[in-house]
Amino acid sequence: DGPAAAGNRRIVWDGTNPLNLKYSNTQAKVFLIGGDPAIGNWNNSPSTPLPEMTYMGNGMWTATVTISSNTAFKFIIEKGVWGYQYGDAGSGKVQFRNGDNDPDPNAFNISAGTRTITLNENTQTFTIL
User: Fold this and answer.
1) Which of 12, 49, 85, 97 has the smallest C-beta neighbourhood within 10 Å, fewest atoms?
2) Which residues, given as ranges, of the chain have pLDDT below 50?
C-alpha cells in the first residue's frame, strides 16, 4: 500500500468476530449526501461532487449548504461507499450505521434554504440551523 497520506485518518474496527478482526483506514472526512442537487441527489459515485464538511477539531464537523427543496440527507465518511454512515437516532442524536444501504428510514430531514449543519462525533449529536 505504501505510506498513508498526510492528515487525519479514520480507523474503523470491527471486532464482532475475534477470529476475524476487520478494519478500514481512510482519510478522516465527512460528506453530506441527500435528495437535492446541492447534496448529490443520492448519487454516491466517487466522482459525484458532494459537500465535504470542515473539521473543526474535537470531533466537530460543519458545512453550510443551500437546499432548494425539503428533502432528506445522511452523513457518509467515504464517497462511493454506503457502508459507513451516520443515521438519525432521534432527539438530535446520530447513530453510526455500519453496512446500511441508502435510502433507509434513518435519514435526516432538512428544509429548503441555506443551512449550517454540524456533526459532533464525540457526543454523537447533530444540529441544523
Assistant:
1) 49
2) 1
Tell me: the pLDDT tens digits for 9-36? 677 667 888 888 877 666 789 999 999 9
Q: Is the dihedral of CA 106, 27, 52, 64 positive or negative?
A: positive
Contact present, 79 and 13 (Cβ < 8 Å): no
The SS3 call for residue 38 is helix
What is the pLDDT, as a whole number, of residue 27?
72
Would you state the cell numbers that stand for residue 76, as one nine-digit string? 457518509
Whether the upstream peptide bond of residue 103 has omega within 30° of 0, thus cis, is yes
For Cα atoms 80, 124, 20, give the angle at the middle one, nearest 5 degrees. 60
Using a 10 angstrom Cβ sphere, with 0-12 exposed, 13-18 middle and 19 or more buried, the burial of residue 121 is buried
Q: How far apart are CA 129 and CA 124, in angstroms?
A: 17
CA distance 44 to 104: 14
**What confidence score (pLDDT) does residue 15 get?**
81
